[in-house]
Write a structure and sequence with these properties.
single chain, mainly beta, Neuraminidase, four-stranded antiparallel β-sheet, 2 helices, 38% strand
Length: 334
C-alpha cells in the first residue's frame, strides 16, 4: 500500500547557506593569515548562529488523509503514526522515511461511529498509546499493532476523566492530559501502566488549565503542556513546578491556540498554532525560554499550513506536522 507523496528539493536555502559558508571560510582564512590562533569552525560566534538558528526546510508531504489530528514517530525515525478525525477514523502507520502506508490500526470491536483517535505517542520499544475521544480511553497497541487494552482511569478521577493528549517520558512513564476542567489537568502513569497519579494544579500558581490539548517531554524530563483555551504553553521542571509560561502577550512569541507540542534532543520546543497556521519554535534549554522562529504560514502550498494540530520529532531532528486543514502530513528537515 502506498499513499500519495509530494516532494520538493529546497535548493534556494542550500545555495544561500553555501554562499554564507564561503564568506565565513574567507574570514577564517584572513584571521589565520594575520597570525591569530586557528579557531575551529564551531568556535566562531557567527558559525554557531548559522548552525543553530536556521529554520528547517520543507521536504515532502503525505497526502490523501482525512483530517489528520494526532501524530507520533518512533525515535529511530522508522515508523510514523497518524490519527484521522474523519472518514473511517483510523490510525494509519507509514514508513517515516518513504511515506509508504504500512497498515491501519483500530481497537477491536469499534466502528467509525463510536471511535475517534486523537493524541498519539510511541515508546522506544514500539508500544503505541492512542487517545480515543469518543470512547474516553487510551488504547495500547504492541509493536505489531495488536491491541493490549486501555490505560485505567487515574486514581480518584472517575467521570471527570476525559483523556486528550499523551506523551511518553524517558523512563517509560506515560503522561495523559485531561480535557475536563473539573478533573486533574494531567496524570502520570507508572511504567507498568497499572495506575495513574493525577496532578493537582492548585499548586501551580497560574490558575487552572483550560483544555490542555497536548503534552511533550524533554530529555531532562521537563514537561510542556499546551493550555489551548488559555493561549499559552506551560513549562514545568522535573519537580513539576511551573518554570515558565510561554505564548501570552503580543508579537512573534504570541500563540493563538496551541496544540500538541514536541521537544527535540536539543531542547527545542515545537508548538503548532492552530489559528496562526504555523509551528512556533523555542529554545527551552533553561528556565528562560527563547523564541527562535516560525515554521510555515497560512496557505495550501508546500511548506504552508491550515490549522496544524500536532508535531512529532525523531532522534535525528526530522519534524512531522499534521496539516489538518490541508488533509496531509508535512515532513521538514533540519
Amino acid at each position: 500500500m502506498r499513499s500519495t507523496i509530494a516532494q520538493r528539493v529546497p535548493t534556494t536555502g542550500l545555495v544561500a547557506a553555501a554562499i554564507g559558508l564561503v564568506a565565513i571560510m574567507a574570514t577564517v582564512t584572513l584571521l589565520n593569515i594575520r597570525g591569530t590562533s586557528n579557531p575551529t569552525i564551531r568556535d566562531l560566534p557567527i558559525i554557531g548562529a548559522v548552525m543553530q538558528e536556521q529554520p528547517p526546510v520543507f521536504q515532502s508531504a503525505i497526502l490523501d488523509l482525512r483530517v489528520p489530528m494526532g501524530i507520533a514517530v518512533t525515535p529511530n525515525g522508522g515508523r510514523l503514526y497518524v490519527s484521522e478525525g474523519d472518514g473511517d477514523r483510523l490510525i494509519k502507520e507509514f514508513d517515516a522515511r518513504t511515506g509508504e502506508l504500512r497498515g491501519v490500526i483500530a481497537a477491536p470491536g469499534t466502528t467509525t461511529a463510536d471511535r475517534k483517535p486523537m493524541g498519539l505517542a510511541v515508546s522506544r520499544d514500539g508500544v503505541l498509546f492512542a487517545v480515543d475521544r469518543l470512547r474516553m480511553v487510551v488504547d495500547i497497541f504492541d509493536p505489531d499493532n495488536n491491541w493490549l487494552g486501555v490505560l485505567p482511569v487515574p486514581v480518584g478521577q472517575g467521570a471527570t476523566w476525559e483523556p486528550l493528549g499523551v506523551a511518553i517520558g524517558n523512563d517509560g512513564e506515560v503522561y495523559v492530559t485531561n480535557a475536563n476542567t473539573v478533573g486533574a489537568p494531567f496524570a502520570t502513569y507508572s511504567t507498568d501502566w497499572k495506575s495513574g497519579l493525577p496532578f493537582d494544579d492548585a499548586t501551580t500558581g497560574i490558575g487552572g488549565f483550560q483544555f490542555p490539548a497536548g503534552i511533550g517531554v524533554s530529555l531532562d524530563d521537563r514537561l510542556v503542556i499546551a493550555d489551548s483555551n488559555s493561549g499559552r504553553v506551560v513549562l514545568m521542571g522535573r519537580d513539576r513546578t511551573v518554570r515558565a509560561v510561554i505564548g501570552e502577550g503580543v508579537g512573534d512569541e504570541a500563540i493563538g491556540i496551541p496544540r500538541s507540542p514536541a521537544v527535540d534532543s536539543r531542547s527545542r520546543m515545537y508548538v503548532p498554532d492552530v489559528t496562526g497556521h504555523s509551528v512556533k519554535v523555542w529554545d527551552i534549554s533553561d528556565d528562560e525560554p527563547r523564541f527562535l522562529f516560525d515554521i510555515g504560514g497560512p496557505g495550501i502550498a508546500d511548506g504552508e499550513f491550515l490549522y496544524p494540530n500536532a508535531v512529532a520529532v525523531d532522534d535525528r531532528g526530522t519534524i512531522f506536522v499534521t496539516d489538518t486543514g490541508n488533509d496531509r502530513v508535512q515532513k521538514w528537515l533540519k
